Amino acid sequence: MPSLANDPRHQKLVGVLTPLLRRACPPDAGGYGGAYELRLLPSEAEGLGGVPLIRSAMRKAARELGWSKLQTYGSVSATVALAGVLDQREVPKEFAAAVERYKMAQMRDAAEAVSRRLTSGTPHAARGSVFVTAQEFRAAFDAADDA
């Protein structure tokens, strides 16, 4: 099997994913505690080279950010292709509170989005949600075509 890293789509994905992964890190946490999940249509993922290529690009982008201990995951069903990466480095004490505040804010935002959905009957996208993440990824990937 040829190396995924030699595929030109891999290089483009790494270039697109690196800043998105950087933005997924909690502010004031020194680059620790990042996580990124991408949900696409299976046909979109296939057009990008498939979930294995996307996972490989996520791994390389994360390593470029210094995530020396990480986990990637991915799967494809009839309706969704899922790929993600988690920074699993131990968070130094000086950044632990910032990471914890960020995680708590994410959970609060998700709970508020669900509450608004139940109250109003319409979806409300929260920053960092899988819907917003996919839209940001698509926009960054399309912009890389123009560059």
Structure commentary:
This protein has helices spanning 8-23, 42-47, 51-64, 93-120, 130-146, and strands at residues 35-40, 70-76, 81-87. With 147 residues, the chain is of the alpha+beta class. β2 (70-76) and β3 form a beta hairpin.
Number of strands: 3
Largest sheet: 3 strands, antiparallel
| N-to-C span | 31 Å
Order of helices and strands: HEHHEEHH
Lateral strand order in the biggest sheet: 1-3-2
Using only C-alpha atoms, the radius of gyration works out to 16 Å
Helical residue percent? 55-70%
Number of helices: 5
Which structural class should the secondary elements be placed in? alpha+beta
What portion of residues belong to β-strands?
Answer: 5-15%
Spans of 5+ residues with little confidence (pLDDT < 50)?
Answer: none
Roughly what is the average pLDDT, rounded to an integer? 90
Shape: globular
Helices and strands in order:
Blueprint lengths: L7 H16 L11 E6 L1 H6 L3 H14 L5 E7 L4 E7 L5 H28 L9 H17 L1
Antiparallel strand pairs: 1-3, 2-3
Helix pairs in contact: 1-3, 1-5
